[in-house]
Design brief:
The protein is mainly alpha-helical.
């Protein structure tokens, strides 16, 4: 309570100082105006799409909202912890910065594995009835969809920072090919780390007499999904960094911001969009070769194809984000400029509204008569990557906002900037994460089940119509054969 009161007093003092300065007051007024107009526009659009008549649109809307909140909470909390490490542990010593970042990544990975094991083992609780067992299974399913995904995003950002620092070493930053080598080394090292934890899980399972096959299966499945998420998030980011290095002659910083003229920004936007299109096409190819029916026959190949498909979709998300940033830079709006919170808000609003219109277009495309179920699943994953892109854009806005507030609190009170950032991150995530778990994630699961049931019903109806048409054709051929019009061998 004392901390909140002191921060409220600091906020009022800081606001008074900003208003007293005419130039700063104008900038603050512009940022607040953009935020107010944009927030009400985005909120109303959200109400429209979550209550849309098309169940697919409702599912995609809840999916995008859930993905955005996941990324938002994960990055905000990670940045706060990372800021504390830089302020309290690293403290300007560049020699220990890389080891500290790698230790930070390993800590989150170990914490992720322990969390998945604990949640997967929640089925050990005995249910007194079938109804209670059903409720416990539903709760466990939602927990496994919520917390491992949040922690995998946190670990993914930690991996980006650690391996991004390594990519900026003099050995890897001399050329685009050496920077690409750093991305390959990162992916291979993360794969080795995943396999190491897999062997540890198996060892724990052998020595635990109460270890059950269902718990082991859930643990392995969720750990595989989380591992793919971490590897694809970090690998796609590092690889795109190397591609952009090829065209601007300098490796962008850890936030993906490139230095150069507006012409460079326009060129990079074209490169990022082209990379996104290529990644989308590769995702379609990998999806075609990823057949679940062959998982028992070729388990390694199936897992590899699933990982590469997710890698391609993650590349689409990063490419769309950087393309939008480079387009704005080409028009003189640098998101990395000092006091660029308003520009970051404009970027997030632009991406949110643009990609929402793309969702409607892709949904119409998936409803075309000749669209196969495989193409529909690819479109759904592409829309999910758009939600990831929206989340990445909004987390930059709130990260800049919390940094500004933490700095203002530190200037107007006797508090540490890193501590202020951590307090704000815990406060915001403490409000958003429970709402996501209790209210938004169940809507995502429910809308997904409704969508699957409707798709299965549509496929069943098509099969019935196809069978009826075949029977009608066969009966017509039999009648023609009886009347001597055609031989029996010509009948279908």
């Amino acid at each position: 309570m004392a901390i909140m009161i002191s921060m409220s007093v600091a906020l009022s003092r800081g606001a008074a100082e900003l208003v007293s300065d005419k130039t700063a007051g104008t900038e603050v007024a512009n940022a607040v105006s953009i935020m107010l107009v944009g927030s009400i526009t985005l909120q109303m659009c959200t109400f429209y799409i979550v209550n849309h008549g098309d169940p697919d649109i409702r599912f995609f809307a809840w999916l995008i909202i859930g993905t955005t909140l996941q990324i938002f909470c994960a990055f905000l909390f990670y940045q706060a912890i990372n800021g504390c490490l830089k302020s309290w542990v690293i403290a300007g010593n560049e020699n220990i910065e890389l080891p500290v970042h790698f230790a930070h990544m390993l800590f989150w990975f170990a914490f992720l594995q322990g969390t998945i094991g604990y949640l997967a083992g929640s089925c050990r609780k005995k249910a007194e009835s079938k109804d209670q067992e059903k409720v416990l299974n539903e709760v466990r399913e939602l927990d496994l969809k919520c917390f491992p995904q949040l922690l995998s995003h946190v670990t993914g950002f930690a991996a980006i920072t650690a391996w991004g620092d390594m990519q900026h070493l003099s050995f890897f930053s001399v050329s685009p090919w050496s920077a690409m080598l750093a991305a390959v080394v990162a992916c291979c090292s993360l794969s080795v780390l995943f396999n190491t934890y897999w062997m540890i899980r198996k060892k724990i399972g052998r020595h635990d007499g109460g270890y059950r096959a269902k718990v082991a299966e859930l643990w392995d499945e969720e750990s595989l999904e989380a591992g793919h998420d971490i590897l694809c998030m970090a690998g796609a980011f590092l690889m795109l960094q190397a591609v952009r290095f090829k065209f601007i002659g300098k490796l962008p910083n850890l936030e993906g911001v490139s230095e150069g003229t507006t012409a460079v920004g326009l060129e990079l936007s074209v490169v990022c969009l082209s990379w996104a299109i290529c990644a989308g096409m590769l995702a379609a190819v990998f999806h075609k070769f990823h057949m679940k029916k062959n998982e028992d026959l070729y388990p390694f190949l199936s897992k590899f194809m699933r990982m590469m498909k997710q890698f391609a979709f993650m590349s689409v998300a990063w490419s769309l984000l950087f393309a939008a940033m480079d387009v704005m830079k080409a028009h003189g709006l640098d998101v990395n400029a000092e006091g660029g919170v308003a520009i970051k808000v404009v970027l997030a609003l632009f991406l949110s509204l643009t990609l929402l219109f793309c969702v409607f277009f892709l949904n119409k495309l998936s409803h075309l008569g000749g669209t196969s179920p495989a193409i529909s699943r690819i479109i759904a994953k592409l829309i999910e990557s758009m939600g990831l892109c929206i989340g990445l854009s909004w987390e930059r806005c709130f990260d800049a906002a919390t940094d500004s507030l933490a700095e203002m609190f530190a200037q107007t009170s006797n508090t540490d900037e890193a501590s202020n950032g951590l307090f704000l991150a815990v406060l915001v995530c403490g409000l958003v994460a429970p709402a996501y778990r209790w209210y938004i994630l169940p809507q995502v699961v429910k809308s997904e089940e409704v969508r699957k049931q409707r798709k299965n019903l549509e496929m069943a109806n098509k099969e019935v119509v196809r069978s009826a048409d075949s029977s009608q054709k066969w009966w017509s051929c039999c009648q023609a054969r009886a009347n001597g019009y055609m031989p029996l061998a010509a009948a279908p």
